[in-house]
Amino acid sequence: MNFKDTAVILVGYQNDYFAADGILRSVVEEPGRVDQVLSNTLALIKKLAPTEASIIATGIVLTPNYRALANSAGILDKIKEVGAFTEGTSGAQTIDELKQFGDRITYVTGKEGFNSFNNTNLAETLKEAGIKHVWVAGMVTSLCIDSTARAAYENSYEVSILSDCCSARTAFEQNFFCENVFPLYANVMDSSQVQVSLASA
Length: 201
Hints:
alpha/beta, Rossmann fold, 6 strands, hydrolase, Isochorismatase-like_hydrls
């Protein structure tokens, strides 16, 4: 497997989702699944770190007046209601577990909604690195993961969803997207498949 033209996009690895006291942790019906997503993701990053793969993290950070969510609905309304991802708060910060990888992870800022390409330099970052394959992981499967993956597909990337490195709000929703939605435009794979490829490389 050629990792030089592959990028892993880590979406929403922030304290408001992943910390034990994260104010959006309850968005997931079984919060233990969030811990498993993190464990799987960290194991994958450790395996990919010595390779030429690009590892890119992007999180949503919002101004205190939530200007970007002026016409929000659904979960974006929930984000505004509870004060999640507010600029300057610990909840908006990247989780400490990612910081251990230092500059091996490239951080893309500016995200204010579901799609990691909007209002960011993600497209430019991928182009400069000569990326052809994009793997997507993070939170939430039915929202940011789907929006980011579709945008990658529409930008002519070959897209894969790391199913065990992302979580939806419910197990049913996770299975529905992985079995019925993502296969329409992307590959769905388990991070263990990547680790097997690395072991045999």
